[in-house]
Structure formats: C-alpha cells, structure tokens
Design goal:
Shape of chain A: globular
Oligomer: homotetramer
Number of strands of chain A: 24
Radius of gyration of chain A: 22 Å
Distance between the termini of chain A: 44 Å
CATH superfamily of chain A: Jelly Rolls
Largest interface: A-B, 89 and 90 residues
Number of domains of chain A: 1
CATH architecture of chain A: Sandwich
Helix content of chain A: 10-25%
CATH topology of chain A: Jelly Rolls
Structural class of chain A: alpha+beta
Strand content of chain A: 25-35%
C-alpha cells in the first residue's frame, strides 16, 4: 500500500478514535482468529512445595479473620486476574482443627475437592457434610455455606481442599452478588446424609420439584466413585485417550452438577499411555492417586498425588500413568455446550 | 493490625507469589463483590455524527479489501477490547452499491440490525435475504455468509447495519475458530424466502429436525414486527417499565434466536415515562423510530432515530418517549439464564 | 398334546378363573402380537352424502338444545364406541345463522377443521376467532369454549366443521372431567386476533410463560397455510410418499399443537402418485381441495373436496392426485412418540 | 318432548346409522362425563390363595412350553381384557429351578417386582441381573430378554415375581410388535452389575448418550431402596396421605424409569392412618412388608405381605398400617402427565 493511503487511513483512525470507534479491518484476524489463541498456559503446582506455605498461612491468619483461608492458584499468564484458566478460579483452602469459616453466600458456584486430611465439614443451606479425601462437594450459587473442623481433642486434623469457582465467569458477565450471614454458623436444619438419601439413590421424593440448576446432591463421596472406577476398569474397554473417565451427574437431569462447571474422575491403569486430544474447555486436574505425566502442547510435566495442573483450551494433551492413577478434573464444559462453542479433537501419535 | 504482623504477611505474600499464589483474604471482596461492579459505562453514539465517518470509510477502503467494512463501537471504559459491553461486540457496517463482502464462517454468532438504506443482501449457507430498515437478521455460528449490494444502476444504494456479535464471549472462553470460503460468493442453493416459509409460519416440514441451537429463520422482517407492535399497543396494557416489549423467538424451541444473544423490539407510545429497572444483562439499543431519552444510573441521554446506546449491567435505567418510539435491543440474557446468573429488579420513582 | 393333559389344564383354568386369573400362555400371541392388529378399518365418508343429513339435523334440533349439533363419524369396525380410530373421535358440527352452542369445558382437547361456510366463530377463554374454510382451530383441554354464528341478516350462513377430539383416549385413561359454564356465552376478555399477534409472529411478549402443553395460537388460518404450501411446492423437492407435508406447530416448543393430537396439511401436485407407507398412528383425513384417490391395505377409495377418510394403524397407504390436492389430517402421533411406540415404514411399489 | 318429535328423530337416527353416523347430543354426557367413570373396580388378591395355583401351574406346564408361565390378574370388571386397570396388565410369573423362559422382544415395556424366592435371573440385551425379593427390575420396550433360574443342585429355588406391562395401552394405540430370538438364551455380552456401575452411582461414562426413553439402570435393588426409606423415616416428616413415598427415577433425566409406567415404593410406619386422596392414575400395589388395610371408595380391604391390590382411577383411597408396611406400586402416571390429564385431590376425613 502506498504511503499516502496509509497516512490517510491513519488520520482517519485517529479522528474516529475520539468517537469511540475503530476500524474492524485492522484487527479482524485478532478478533476472529482461525483457532483459539488462549492466553492461559500449561502449569503444574507440586503439592509438596505448596503444603508448607499452607501450614504457614495457618499460622499467619485464622480462618475467621480470613473468612476463607485460601491460597489462590493463578495461571502464570493470567497474573492479577485470579484465574487458573480464563473462566475459572482455583485455590487451596486450609481449615485447622477447631476453626470456623463463617457463613456467606454469593452468585458464584463452588466445588470443593478434598485433597488432604479428613473430618472437616461444610454446611450448605442447613445441612452439613463431613469431608474425606477424594470427595467432590458442591456449593450451589446463592446458598448459605460455612466450613468448620472439630477441635483437635475431638479428633480434628488440618484439612486441605481444592476450591474451584466460576469467579472469572461471573465477573465477565458482571453478574455477581454476595452477602454475609448474620451469624457465622447458622443452625443446621437437616441431618447429615439427608440429601444423599433423598436424591442420590435413583429414587426421588414423590412430590419433589427443584427450581435450581444445580444438583441437589452436594457430596459425591470418593468411596463410591472409586469403587465404580474399579468395577468399570474390570468390565469396560479402556478409552485410548482417557482411560476410564466418568462425569459427575445431577440426578434430576442427567446433566452437569453445576450449571457453570463440569467435574470428572478418571482412572488410568498402570502403564497407560494415552493418545493426544484437544478440547476448547481448559481443564484443571487434581491428582488423587498414583504418579505419571501429562504432555501439554509438547511440554511434559510429571505429577504425583495431590499435585494440580492446568491444560489450556485447545492445547494438545496426553496422559501417561506410571502407576495406577486417579485424576479429578473440572472445566467450563457446561457453558461451552450451552453456548454451542465446545469443539473436541481426538488425535493419535 | 500491628506493623509486625503486616510485615510478616507481606513477606509471606512475596514468597508465595513466586509459586503463582496469592492470599484470597486480601482480595475476597473484589473477587466476590456485594453487587456487580461493571467496568462498562453508559454511552450513546449519535448516528448523525457517525454517518459521515461511514461515508468516509466507504471512500478509504473497499468492502472486498476490508473483508468487512465496519466501524466498531467500543465502550469508553473498555477501549482496546472491541467490546460495547463486557461480553458483546457492536459495529456499524457499510456496504456500497456493487460491493461484495466475501464469504467466511466463524464460531462467533452474529446479528445484523438494518439501520439505513435497503436492498443489500446477506447470504447464509446458500440462501440470500434482502435487507430493509428494521429487519433483524441472524448469522448462526459456523455458517458460511457473505454480504452484497446490487450495483447502483440496478437500484443499489448504500446500506448500513448494526452488527452485534459475541466476540468477547467467544474470546473469553478461548473457543473461536474461523475460516475463509474458497470463493468470495458461493453459489445460492435455496431460493430467497425459503427459510421463512419452511419455519416461520407456525408450521414445520414433516420430517425436519434441527441439530442447531440457532433459529432456522434468519430474517425477521420489520414490517411484520412493526404490525405486531401496533396490534399489541391497541390491545394490551402497557408495561410500566418497558411499554410493549417483545422478544425474537426461535420457533423450534420458543427460546432465544441465538444461543448467546437475545434480541428485543419494543414500542413506547408518545409521552411514555417508564419506571426504572435494573438487570444483570447489559443491553445495546438501536433507535428505530421516534425520539426520547434514557436515564442510566442518573445520567440522561437524549436519542433520535438510528442512535445507539448501551446500558451497563445492573445500572438503573428508565426510558421516556417524546414521540412514539420503537427501540431494538440485544443482550447476553440467554447466557445469564443458562448459567443461572440473571437477576432483575423493577423499581419505581 | 394328549387329551388328559388338555383336560387337566382346562380344569385348572376353570378353578383359577374364579380368582380372576387366566393362563398367559393360552393368549400370549394375542396379547403380544407380531404386528399391530388394529380393529379399526379403512373408511371414507362422502361429504355430498353427509351434507343433507346435516341440513336435516339443523331442522330437527337447535344448537342450544343439542349443546353441540354433531353427527359423529364412527369407524365401521368400532360401532358403539364413538371412535373413528381406536384413540380418536371425529364428527361434523353444524351451526346455523343466529345460533349459539353454549359454553362448557372438559379434559378432552379438540380441534376444529372448517369444512363448509364461513363467518361462524368459536371463543376460547374469552377470545373469539372467526372461521373460514381450511382454518385449523384448537380448543385446549379444560378451557371454556362456545361457538356461535351471526344472524342471517348480519351475513351469517350455515357453517360446518370437522371436530377431532381425544375422547376415546381420555376415556381409556379414565381421566375425563367436564363442566358447563354458568352462562351460555361468557363475556369476551380479549380482542379477536390477540393470540395470533402475541404468539404467532415469531415474537413473544417479554415476560410470557406458559404452563400449558397446548399451543397458545388457537387459529392457524388457511390463507397463510395455503400460501406456505404454494411457496414450498415451487421451492422444495417433492417427498415421494407425502408430496409437500407440513405439521402444525406450537410456537412455544416447536412441538405439537395439542399434547394428544398432531395435525398436518399437505399438498399433492396434479398427477402425483405417492409411494406406499405405513405408520402406527392411524390418521383421519379431510379433503380441502382437489380430487384423487387413496389406496389403503389394497382398497382404493376415490375422494373429492370435503370428503373424510380414515387410515388404520400400520395399514399400507398411498395417495394419488388427479388434480392438485390439499389434504388436512390428524392423528395420535404425539402420544405414540411420548410413549416410544411410533413406528413408520416407507415402501415402494 | 312430544311423541312426534321423538319419532321423527328416531327415524333420522336410523337413517344416518347406515352411514356410520350417530347424533352426539344423545350421548354427549356419556362421552364427556363430569368426572371419570372407570369401569375398573377395587380388588385384592391374597398371595396365600394364589400361591398354590402357581405351584400347580409349575406342574402343569414348563417355562419353556409356556414361554412365560404367568397367571394373569384380571380386574373383575374387565374380564376378558387381560387388564388389571384400564391401561395396565399384571400377572404373577413363576420360574422353577433349572428352567428357562426363552428370549423374545416386544413393543410392550415390562417391570418385574420380585415377590417370592431369590436367585432367578433376567437378562436384558446381553446383561443378566439376579433377583432378590423387593427388587424392581425393568425390561425396556423392544429389548431382547429371557429369564432363568439355577438348577436346584446349584441352589435354585422357585421364584415368583409380579409382572407389570403396558399391554392394554399398546393394544389401544394399535402399536405392538413382537419377535422371538433365534436362540432361547442369547449369549451374555456384559458382566452382571455393569449397568448399575455405569449409570446408578450419580456418575456417567464421559461420552455416553442414550437414545432410549427408558432408564439404563434395569435393577433397582431392594436393599438400597429399603435403606433409603429407613433413613427418610428417621429424617423427614411423614406425609399425611402417603407416609414416606419415593418414585423410581431414570438417572439420565430425573423422570420416570419407563415412558409408560411409573413405579413407587413407600413406607408406612406402624399405626399410620393415612388421609384419603384420589388420583386419575389407577394404581396396582404389591405388599412387600407388614400388614394393614386400604379403604377404596368406602370398601376396606386388609392386606398381608405379597398381596396385590388395585385402586381405580379417581376412587377415594386411604392406607392404614397395623405394622410397619412397605408397599410397592405402579401406575400409568407418566402417560397421564405427558397427555396433560393427571388430576389429583388430597382430602381429609
């Protein structure tokens, strides 16, 4: 293009800039890219490196003062955004024996995946559930919730879980509300296990109708999930990309447990070498059992139990297991499906 | 808090920062705000100010070279992001007589709201529709589409429409793909009007099944919409907040025409003074007929035909009509509903 | 089988009969047949033979006394059951100028297909619609409805329509309720055309939500349906079995207009010779335009405008048009689909 | 009415009768009754009276010869129709040690409720499940299924279950097909327990999609159901009409396990005296545990374990428990809901 045209256009761009306008043609390929160009990068956090800092945080601040004593895991390419992927937040929460994290509620939906220790509890709208490693627990949008831990002399021990929330998503849509409860620990109104009995047994109360988009089960215990994985490992062919992979389900709909977050548990038998795949939903993994490695966009990361790693959107990923591995993961897949955006590709070496 | 504790914590924060961690408790209220704190601000673009720049753009670059000759409307608080609200993009597209905007497809869904001139056409997957002012036209995700305009000697005149796309949303979810067609103008495979006849008459072809989340109607002509508004103005009580307000519908589902974007047309009778309301879905308005004013978060903006204005999430808004007004608007409401995030408040002076 | 065994079994059967028992094995093949063995038989009623009897009925009894002046069409194999197919009822209703058929409501859903004359009206829950030949009108379950006709000096003329109801189905499920209104003609509460404007234009009122399973449109006018058939005849390939066939749609769901009854309109071009097909949903046809023939289970029946014929479940059927034909039909297809029972077969000569 | 008019009308009725017509006005109140007038009557079968006849049937005919050795329970008012309610069929099936009931499939859906004995098995599409008393087992429409029982020397014992099928419904809609398998016992293709692990644990295989309307779980074991009832008895308030009542659920949808049949399990604590209610879905009850009584339309029937009783549509019914009772029941509720016909009334003494 000759210099004159260039100069004329530049002048034009400056004049329209004052009106809040810019020329699409100069940025079309950026705005409508040929394929996803995620800012999010692959990353892995080693739990054995993180754990001492959690312990130190436990000494620096109480759960009550912190409201939530969480170290947030920020994607290296998204520093300052409190995001582990572009749409999701993750953090490790520590609650010590005898502590209380006071009750509040917010538009953001949360999942808790129990990583370390047991016996702490979370309460959702008046029902408490006790945590064990590997349990998948959800806090639906706008439900009151508090966390606690029995005193040390009642058997309480430090408990750490991975929080997964849709904080970036709710912020992106400018739709977040929050409120503190009048009391730190509102009274319980239903016995422990009530939701599991009412909704988790392939039966439903005769006249029950839900107006929520979130699963009425709020603890999917690991014991049951692990046993199911074992059964299917013996009975089903392995998927060449995913091993045995299950998704947590809202039993009222067969759909996702949370309208904004999908969660999965998968088993890779010892020696599994998965084929590579891609998906537009970036995923956060938490290693439950076993060691192995993940290769993301050509970069190999070794993992051990309790480690956390993140796979960006549309990055090529493959999983390998040195020992039998169990991996928990979560992503924004329900939203990508609802918006008609999900795309997947299964590849081979 | 004493200085020592502060210093100890700061030291801790610096040490964990190297691991990609930060303490939630220092930013909890920002991340989980009491109510939406949208960056997006109210804004209004006067068409009579914009129109000369569109004309000038028509002289500076051809539709072919530009691919799409669009001046993008950026929210003053979101400069550089190509966003009119946090999740939506809007621009004014000009196509001159005899021009062609070549065929491509992308994950992003688009709406075209015809503002000025008539006789241009858009083609979607082999079917063409001719544009008239007030027509609401959609381009579903991943459908081939091109635009064109008859030559001047065949009656072509400059045509301007408002483009509304979910570009920021698709970028946020890192899920966008795009592709150019091998030819600028692929052949037509169905006659004009075919979609309207097949799907728009409260009848459906016997064995038709859709796998798309988008409406199979791609032009909702203004003539029909306007007549419906007139009928309902005579027959229905006015809503104190919205006058007569209709939403465009996907006749296969009764839901939204596009999975990511809702669109509305409303009529305010002369002298209407609407009560104030709020909603978490920020909205972009295009004035079709009449003049009036909108008060957004205490700021009054006067509007005339073809002007465009934006109402941020959760801003208090009220509408007033000096003459009978017809307003088109669009928002990300379908997403907020799917995610369980939509919240509305109807208030009074 | 030897006589002794036979005798022993017979004795056993008699003894268990007293307890209300019988041996499945003696009737298994009847109860679980290899394919449908419909009692319903093919039949055709010639309107020119029926019309004089309708006229005579008009002299014998008033609409007021009759409540509904209907001659019911009984399938020859289902006499006494008020059934034209096993699950559906059909009758021809006459209303004379100046008459009123008083308001009542019932669990049974009804359709009215206007056969002869125009200007009569039906009112559903306070909204009136005026009838023209070919209009498809519905009366949802449990809605108040009355019919009327302007006096002769106001232009009223005798009007005949085909009633289609789910009377046998509601009886089979023992689920029918009915009630007479306190007044024969309750006051109108909405202007004529209101439903069509609110729901029929691919737009919906902003905050409208329906709790009904029935379409909110209650008149699908023939003018519009006929024009759509014409357009598609010019634009679409003919289906070898059905010509151009459309189904009436509930615009809130894309599904059937009535939860128990599907309705269709189809066009056969002059000279069309349809291939044979079968379906488990028995169908009732009303000829709108043109003459032709239908071959049902090897039996050919010639038809003329306003004739009515019935095709039993799973009978082989093919249609032929001597002139351009328009055929209205209805069946219990929505129920067969909801129950997972619908089966179809497309065959060729 | 004077005799002349009567005579004229009678003459008219005779003349139109030849055309397959009758005058609606003479039968309107029968065809559109004020409330359901079910032919079905209350009835109770005492298992201790039936059991000897089942044993005798076991001597009279083999399972192989009978195909299905079932004594069908006919409603006293529906003799000859193989119906226990107007829309449902029930029978008691006996399978002796070492026997096989050969594989077939049919449009009719079936449930099996295990009444007496254990260790027999049913196979559905290549997966076997072993039966225990109280298990609720389903055979989806058009799935291959056979039944068997281990030989006596392998621990086999006579097993009796209640069959519930939609035979009258499929017959009413003229939509039944059936087919025998080439071999009496097709090979198993999946291990026992596979369906329960894949679908019953609030998890689903990652890429599973069902095209069926029937639950993928085909055995809902009593042990789990009973434990759930116990938990809820301790935790939930009693419903004054139903005690603790649960419905079996398709975990893919939260809906009914079979598209045509709902099934329920309820617990009445000792001394429970239920309030009266009505529903348009007639129900068949099988007593699992405890003794008590049911009052149906003013008629009291005492029941013991394994007894079967039927409650007609819209009959007033109340339940009373002398001991803690567990009752299984099934009805056509899914159909009544899909058709918009279900009506219920909760009353009090």
């Amino acid at each position: 293009m000759n210099n004159n045209i260039t100069a004329v256009r530049k002048d034009f761009y400056q004049r329209i800039d004052r009106l809040g306008l810019f020329p699409l043609w100069e940025r079309l390929h950026n705005l409508v890219p040929a394929e996803p160009a995620a800012a999010c990068v692959p990353a892995l956090w080693r739990y054995r490196e993180l754990r001492p800092f959690l312990t130190e945080a436990g000494q620096l601040i109480s759960a009550e003062e912190a409201v939530r004593r969480v170290l947030v895991l920020e994607n290296p390419a998204l520093r300052g955004q409190a995001s582990i992927t572009s749409s999701l937040y993750a953090g490790l929460q520590l609650i010590l024996p005898g502590e209380t994290a006071p009750s509040h509620r917010h538009s953001q939906s949360a999942l808790r995946f129990v990583v370390d220790g047991q016996g702490a509890f979370t309460s959702v709208d008046g029902e408490r559930t006790t945590m064990s490693p590997g349990d998948f627990i959800i806090t639906p949008s706008w439900t009151w919730h508090d966390h606690g831990n029995p005193a040390a002399d009642e058997g309480g021990e430090p408990v750490v879980w991975l929080d997964g929330l849709d904080i970036p998503m709710v912020r992106f849509f400018d739709a977040g509300f929050a409120e503190n409860h009048q009391v730190p620990v509102p009274p319980l109104t239903r016995p422990e296990g009530n939701s599991g009995a009412r909704y988790g047994m392939n039966l439903l109360p005769m006249r029950y109708e839900s107006s929520s988009r979130t699963s009425p089960i709020f603890n999917y215990p690991y014991a049951r999930t692990r046993e199911t994985l074992d059964t299917l490992l013996r009975q089903e062919p392995l998927d060449c990309w995913e091993g045995i992979k299950l998704r947590y389900v809202n039993p009222l709909t067969g759909g996702w447990p949370i309208p904004t977050i999908a969660a999965f548990m998968q088993l890779l038998p010892k020696g599994f070498r998965g084929q590579p795949y891609r998906s537009t939903d970036a995923s956060v993994f938490s290693v439950v059992e076993g060691s192995g490695s993940v290769c993301i966009a050509g970069q190999r990361l070794n993992f051990e139990p309790k480690d956390i790693f993140v796979v960006p959107s549309w990055a090529q990923v493959s999983l390998a297991a040195d020992q039998e591995c169990v991996l928990f993961s979560f992503s924004d897949r329900p939203v990508q499906q609802a918006l008609g955006l999900l795309r997947e590709s299964r590849e081979s070496f």
